[in-house]
């Protein structure tokens, strides 16, 4: 697969008060050597507990880091160009036109002082230099209808506060897909919404993805949504990716103990006859990362090597599957002897391996 977007070895530092006074200059590494790929028209989920670095990874790729953050290493290859080496002017043209982004809180991504129509029209004004009012109006209605806003024409003069959360999120989707981008980055786009609205929004995103052959990066802590919605997954922990691959394979045959732990904490994905189990312990703070594997203090399989040396990548299926865990071979071996086929069997095997 030739990826549409490929991030290589992204490393992002943040100046932080948390880290100040700990010997360094108050700098933490929020994204550490992160590599990921998104194929054209495919959806990649980035999954991990809150604080694992998912948002900072996305912002690093888009050149939108907060003022205390800096991408210190890595490439962000998008259609052959390196976004990490573009000027803000160039990036601003790519964002919106070729890459859309949808953030968690639609209330803050829309300006409360402008009408919905004005904010959608701005995309066409800025990127396509369209000034003719009738054309702008027609284009706005078209794109609002595409995201299934009822009575679109009448809503053009409404303000964001007159819309429900779900409707506001539809408007920000409209703004971001208006120019048919090749890639849409969605950072927890539905977390603030209730469950039925969540599903409506995700179905909408999936329809748009298919219609426009758009690739999606979908950041979520919800494994169930990721499984329903995405083709590939990257699991993040403590600023690093610990496991990645096609989502069906990763969720059926998780190898990293952190991935296994996450799956067991989710009702619909946990092995059927097993009680839900939260992963004991907490994610380390960036100012206080453990030696070696970052998950090691919480890992029930950890051996001596895990606390001294960060694990090398272990790759198989021509690099499609990757895991950073010293015990990969052993854990994979357990699957090979115990998992012939079928979800029921693999659920049992998952219990075996994680025992
Ligand atoms: N603006 C910021 N300044 C300092 N630290 C930050 C900032 N934003 C996030 N962080 C820290 O960076 C880490 C990763 O954050 P984030 O990417 O937002 O996590 P996630 O999206 O996975 O919940 C966290 O430890 C968080 O506290
Ligand atoms: Mg986040």
Can you put this structure into words, describing what you see?
The structure is a single chain. The chain contains 13 helices and 12 strands. By secondary structure, the chain is an alpha/beta fold. Among the domains are: 109-180, no CATH class; 253-354, no CATH class. An 8-stranded mixed beta sheet has the order 6-7-8-3-9-10-12-11, with helices on both faces. It has a 4-stranded antiparallel beta sheet with strand order 2-1-4-5. Mean pLDDT is 88; it is low at 338-355. The structure holds adenosine-5'-diphosphate and magnesium ion.
Instruction: Give a list of the ligands.
Output: adenosine-5'-diphosphate, magnesium ion
Report the count of strand segments: 12
Helix content: 25-40%
Q: What is the string of SSEs from the N terminus onward?
A: EEEHEEHEHHHHHEHEHEEHHEEHH
Ends apart, CA distance between termini: 35 Å
Shape: globular
Q: Report Rg.
A: 21 Å
Largest sheet: 8 strands, mixed
Strand order of the largest sheet: 6-7-8-3-9-10-12-11
What would you call the quaternary organization? single chain
Class based on secondary structure composition and strand pairing? alpha/beta
* Overall pLDDT score: 88
Contiguous low-pLDDT stretches (5 residues minimum) are 338-355
Give the number of helices.
13
- The portion of residues forming beta strands comes to 15-25%
């Amino acid at each position: 697969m030739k990826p549409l977007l490929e991030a290589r070895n992204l490393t992002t530092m943040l100046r932080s008060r948390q880290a100040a006074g700990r010997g360094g200059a108050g700098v933490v590494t929020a994204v550490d050597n992160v590599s990921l790929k998104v194929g054209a028209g495919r959806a990649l989920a980035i999954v991990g507990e809150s604080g694992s670095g998912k948002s900072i990874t996305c912002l690093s790729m888009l050149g939108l880091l907060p003022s205390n953050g800096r991408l210190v290493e890595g490439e962000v290859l998008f259609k052959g160009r390196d976004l990490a080496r573009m000027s803000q002017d160039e990036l601003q043209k790519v964002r919106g036109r070729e890459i859309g982004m949808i953030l968690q809180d639609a209330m803050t991504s829309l300006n409360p002082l402008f009408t919905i129509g004005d904010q959608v029209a701005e995309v066409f004004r800025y990127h396509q230099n369209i000034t003719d009012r009738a054309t702008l109006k027609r284009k706005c209605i078209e794109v609002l209808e595409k995201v299934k806003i009822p009575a679109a024409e009448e809503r053009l003069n409404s303000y964001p506060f007159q819309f429900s959360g779900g409707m506001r999120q539809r408007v920000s989707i409209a703004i971001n897909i208006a120019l048919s981008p090749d890639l849409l980055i969605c950072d927890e786009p539905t977390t603030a919404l209730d469950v039925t609205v969540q599903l409506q929004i995700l179905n909408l995103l999936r329809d748009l993805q298919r219609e426009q052959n758009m690739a999606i990066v979908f950041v979520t802590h919800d494994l169930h949504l990721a499984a329903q919605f995405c083709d590939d997954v990257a699991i993040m922990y403590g600023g690093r990716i610990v496991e990645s691959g096609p989502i069906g394979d990763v969720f059926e045959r998780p190898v990293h103990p952190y991935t296994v732990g996450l799956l067991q904490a989710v009702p619909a994905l946990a092995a059927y006859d097993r009680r839900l189990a939260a992963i004991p312990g907490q994610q380390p703070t960036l100012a206080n990362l453990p030696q070696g594997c970052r998950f090691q203090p919480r890992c029930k399989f950890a051996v001596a090597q895990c606390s001294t040396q960060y694990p090398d990548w272990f790759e198989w299926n021509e690099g499609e599957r990757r895991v950073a865990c010293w015990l990969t071979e052993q854990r994979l071996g357990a699957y090979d002897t115990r998992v012939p086929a079928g979800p029921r069997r693999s659920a049992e095997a998952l219990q075996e391996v994680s025992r």
